[in-house]
Amino acid sequence: MCGIVGYIGDKQAAPFLLDGMSKLEYRGYDSAGIAVLEEDGHICVDKCVGHLDALRKKLEGNMPKGTAGIGHTRWATHGRPSDRNAHPHTNTSGKFVVVHNGIIENYLTLKEELMGKGYTFVSETDTEVVAQLMADLYDGSFESTVKKVLKRIKGSYSLVFMCEYDSDKLICTKKDNPLIIGLGEDENFIASDIPAIISCTRRTYVMSDGEIGTVCRDKVWVEDIDGTPITKKVFEVKWNAEAVEKGGFEHFMLKEIYEQPKSIRDTMTGRMDAEEKKINFPELKWTAEEIAGINKIFIVACGTAYHAGIVGKYYLEQLAHIPVEVDIASEFRYRAPLVDGSSLTIVISQSGETSDTMAALREARRLGSRTLAVTNVVGSSIARDADQVLYTYAGPEIAVASTKAYTTQILAMLMLAIYAGRLRGTMDRDREIVLAEGLLEIPEQVHQMLENVDQIKIFARRYGSSEDVFFIGRSLDYAVALEGALKLKEISYIHAEAYAAGELKHGTLALIVEGVPVIVLATQEDVYDKTVSNMQEVKAREAVVIAIGFEGDASLAKYADHVIYIPSTGKYLAPLLAVLPLQLLSYYAALTRGCDVDKPRNLAKSVTVE
Ligand code: AGP
To answer: What is the position in ligand 1's atom list of the atom closest to the CA of 403?
Structure first.
């Protein structure tokens, strides 16, 4: 997610813009820039790749002078981090300037249309298309031109516009991304997030989708795209500055758990045709023949990403009928894997900088494999080294414990399996429609689940003092159990172990004694009865059984001490929902034990050492 700031008033804009952007640094970014309306009426744009310090250095001694401006910290989605791809973006003449947070889904179509009219582009971004579209649609009125642009673009966005022809105002709007207007005395502010303006004002308008705000020095008005005025209620910000960085959540981990409806929706954007119920990957340059020619897939990753890879194995084998091996990256490179030119190696990495995964990627390339990176950071080392990249759009993940990255990774793997299945003729149209319909419901189902977590808080308090906890399941439930155990271990320091439910009796059952919590995932219908017998197996040893199953499954309560119900969905979609209670359980257990949730001992967010 990018950071946006805007200022118009009686003071110099640049210092506010830079300070506001520094307050958004926690969101993670790879480049920054500002645009300021100078006294001569020209909008001056300064931007560069890197952190704010690089921009400050660039502005040393030649800070733009002016009392209106916009600023942006970029978290790259389209186009790698570079000076040219940094925001603000302008049209060719520089008369129209825009900053943007989000994804313009139809930017390629618009870009082709504009290029057909002779427009040229200097960046790889979707945002520059918006600036050129402003120039193309300009009808003498800044406001009406913005409305015309909004009628042409599709996707998710927070946008702030400046225009040299009408320079005593900033215009802002949003869809599916946050945006607020800060109300001052003879000055007003715009920001993507409260931290940027909280030191200047606590009185805000929280913008809603489709609202267009026109912000002048001494007045602000809001209307809809038809020009109908909208009366906004002033929202007084009560948070302290530190809480504000976390969006009001106590920890980044909880904030990121709650961002999952949006991160899942964003990762589907541009790949899921909701009308056709069809999945495509415009960014993947594969022909059907190339996909058909893949004899084997190797999935290589570490930690949570490795667990996402295990889920991916089930998807790719069952939906695309491609044999898959999943390896821990640090093992892959030393086991002389039988990788060759007919293999595809998929490396999964949230940060795109994990050293073990990078080394495995290089080993796979050395052996002649085609490579695909699934990563959350545009232009990361792994993204640059792989032949092709499939980005998750989870936004910056700050907490060491990976949550929203995991769900967007397994979403990406499921969509990839469906896509590959269609190209290989192993996925019939009806099945794709059913899966697509199920996927489209997931963001709202996740949202509903996150609305009611009281039962999970109770379990976390009740069992948070346990020294050993087991997670068991079969098939995809086992794959999710692995992730649940890692979450609990890494932030609550409880010794947790995931085990294939059918394997318990071959040894580990010796550890199941009275009072040991055993979390049983029971969402996979084809192995449900077997899973129930495993529940009885551990219950017979006086374990405390917490089952996770679908709403409406009345039988689970007969075998479990407690049941956490999740919305009913298809077996392939179940991991996207079943992992949520496990993420929350680990979070609240860590709180119960007074652990440092966002920065657990001994761990780093990105492991760039081997
Ligand atoms: C997960 O919660 C951990 N933070 C860790 O296992 C992480 O998933 C692993 O280090 C891989 O990181 P990556 O996805 O950035 O490559």
So the answer is: 2
pLDDT 10s digits, 471-520: 999 999 999 999 999 999 999 999 999 999 999 999 999 999 999 999 99
Q: Which sign, positive or negative, has the C-alpha torsion 349, 351, 357, 361?
A: positive
The neighbour count for residue 30, using CB atoms within 10 Å, is 22
In angstroms, the CA 372 to CA 528 distance is 34
Distance CA 544, CA 272 (A): 41
User: In this structure, are residues 85 and 48 in contact, taking their beta carbons and an 8 Å threshold?
Assistant: no
- pTM for this model (two decimals): 0.78
Indicate the burial class of 161 (C-beta count within 10 angstroms; 0-12, 13-18, 19 or more): buried
pLDDT of residue 26: 67
In this structure, the residue with its CA closest to atom 5 of ligand 1 is 303
Alpha-carbon gap, residue 261 to 43, rounded angstroms = 37
Higher pLDDT pick, 603 / 556: 556
Contacts (Cβ under 8 Å, ≥6 apart) of 517 = 463, 466, 469, 470, 543, 544, 546
Cis bond upstream, residue 88 (ω within 30) = yes
- Any atom of ligand 1 within 6 Å of the Cβ of 351: yes
